[in-house]
Amino acid sequence: MPAPLIFAVPKGRILDEALPLMARAGVVPEAEFHDKKSRALSFACEDAQMRLIRVRAFDVATFVAHGAAQAGIVGSDVVEEFAYPDLYAPVDLDIGHCRLSVAEPEGQAAGAMPSHLRVASKYPSLTRRHYERLGIQAEVVKLNGAMELAPSLGLASRIVDLVSTGRTLHENGLVETSRILDISARLIVNRAALKTDERVGALVERFRALVSEREAA
Fold first, then answer.
1. What's the whole-model pTM score?
2. pLDDT tens-digit series, residues 168-213
3. Of 37, 49, 95, 209, whose CB neighbour count within 10 A is largest?
4. Contacts of 98 (CB under 8 A, 6+ apart)
5. Neighbour tally for 52: CB within 10 Å
6. Mean pLDDT, the chain, as a whole number?
7. What is the DSSP string of 124-188?
8. Which of 40-44, 100-104, 115-119, 157-161 has the lowest mean pLDDT?
9. CA distance linking residue 90 with residue 187, whole number of Å
């Protein structure tokens, strides 16, 4: 019997939106997965040939790219940030919509753009690429959270972060000044697994068909 297919999902908002789609594609975790008190990270599925792992969004890409998981769901921001050659994102799931944007203190936004910036972000690659296109040298201070504090405490002059409604920015005296990337959740697979494990290809086709059905409705 072949080893179970490992399907990686991120904690948080994308997962809540993905679960109904996953269920229709046959990826249904055991009851413990929904137990808020459970500390488990790996779960059985109704399909005995599949296991689900729940990890941080950035780690979903790493597990799949290195073949520890064969497939998963993650935001396109993570796919773009890492740009792993062994990662393939064949299906846009049309959920988890938000954007990656630059934000800065309200009074600062009208000033001229300097040639060198210090920017706080958990997306150093995407941030540097954005400013390189503008001909600006960006020093990226990597933070994993509380990004909005960086300008007021003098750590950076602006931030690059995910924006959904913009409410958190507003509450911290920041305004969105430019949009870098529109984001949605993607089905991702390991390229080698797609070629060697027919279950991965079948999974891709199921998700692709579900997205097509929804678009046609």
1. 0.93
2. 999 999 999 999 999 999 999 999 999 999 999 999 999 999 999 9
3. 95
4. 75, 162, 163, 164, 183
5. 23
6. 94
7. HHHHHHHHHHTT-EEEEEE-SS-TTHHHHTTS-SEEEEEESSSHHHHHTTEEEEEEEEEE-EEEE
8. 115-119
9. 6
Work out the number of other CB atoms within 10 angstroms of the CB of residue 30: 14
Beta-strand runs (E) in the chain: 5-10, 42-44, 50-55, 71-75, 87-92, 98-105, 116-121, 137-142, 158-163, 174-183, 185-190
Residues in the chain, overall count: 217
In tens, the pLDDT along 82-109 reads: 999 999 999 999 999 999 999 999 877 5
Amino acid at site 107: G
- Give the residue carrying structure tokens 């991965």: 200
